[in-house]
Amino acid sequence: MGNKITVKNLNFFYGKDQALFDISLKIPEREVMAFVGPSGCGKSTFLRVLNRMNDTIPYARIEGEVKIDGKDIYKAKTDVVALRRMVGMVFQKSNPFPKSIFDNVAYGIRINRMHSSKKDLADRVEKALKDAALWDEVKDRLPTSAFGLSGGQQQRLCIARALAVQPEVILMDEPASALDPIATQKIEELVVELKKDYTIVIVTHNMQQAARISDRTAFFMLGKLIEVNPTEKMFTNPDDKLTEDYITGRFG
Amino acid sequence: MTMLTALCAIFAITILVIILAYIAVRGVSAINIEFLIDTPKPVGEGGGIGNAILGSALMTLLATAIGLPIGIGAGVYLAEFGDNWFGNTVRFLSDTLIGVPSIIVGIFVYTIVVLPMSRQSGFAGALSLAIIMIPIVARTTEEMIRLVPKSMREGALALGAPQWRVTWNIVMPAAASGIATGAMLSIARISGETAPLLFTALNSRFYNYFFDQPMASLTVQIYNYATGPFEIEHQMAWAATLILVGLILFINIVVRFLTKKKY
Question: Measured between alpha carbons, how far is A44 from A51 in angstroms, rounded to an integer?
Answer without folding.
Answer: 12
